[in-house]
Specification:
Layout lengths: L1 H18 L2 H37 L6 H15 L11 H25 L3 H4 L2 H36 L3 H7 L13 H5 L15
Helix pairs in contact: 2-3, 2-6, 3-4
Length: 203
């Protein structure tokens, strides 16, 4: 008899959960996590490029040790923060992560600016290849961060609106603080990770 009742109630329960937005919350929650995973992949790719970049400029920038030290220290700080999709609901962890990534971005910008003073460095094949990889990574990073912002906005909208907000409260879902929502234009635009190549010699 109990088994019959369970079989009878299962479809009804499924309809009720679907109608109250439970499935939408699940879908959007997974979309947020997937988007953040892609952001992390690009951050990891950038971090992996930094030691190679520092090594490639080391022989040229003998008078720029302070800049190289800043980049190395910023890279070490980024590597010391372990973060996953489970940390999205922890504002303190996210704040530390975002600050570390911001410091690395600033240090890389200074390194790129200084590299303009070294024509031989800019003509080095390895340096040029690494700069191309870094620029591509920054472009992908901006794209993935933009997608993450949009995924969080869609999730937060469903969690806040009626009647799904009741379902969210029952199952313990909360809004997620969006990444850099106050500077979304900067996040989604092309980054300034570019350098000018030396002009070809005139014949």
């Amino acid at each position: 008899m109990k088994r019959f009742l369970l079989l009878l109630l299962a479809p009804l329960l499924s309809v009720l959960l679907a109608g109250c937005g439970y499935n939408d919350i699940q879908r959007l929650d997974e979309q947020v996590k997937a988007s953040w995973s892609q952001v992390l992949n690009q951050y990891e790719r950038r971090a992996d490029l930094v030691p190679k970049l520092v090594n490639s400029v080391n022989a040229y920038m003998v008078n720029e040790r302070a800049v190289l030290t800043q980049v190395t220290e910023a890279r070490a700080k980024v590597g010391s923060i372990n973060i996953s999709v489970d940390d999205l609901q922890d504002p303190a962890v996210m704040a530390r992560f975002n600050q570390a990534q911001g410091e690395l971005s600033s240090a890389l910008s200074r390194l790129i600016a200084v590299s303009e003073n070294y024509p031989q460095l800019k003509s080095d094949g390895l340096f040029r290849d690494l700069m191309t990889q870094l620029e591509g990574t920054e472009n992908r990073l901006a794209t993935e961060r933009g997608r993450y912002v949009q995924a969080v906005q869609a999730y937060n909208l469903v969690v806040r609106q009626f009647p799904t907000l009741i379902t969210a409260k029952i199952f313990g879902y909360h809004t997620i603080e969006n990444y850099g929502v106050d500077k979304q234009d900067q996040i989604t635009r092309d980054p300034e990770v570019k350098f000018s190549l030396p002009e070809p010699a005139k014949q």
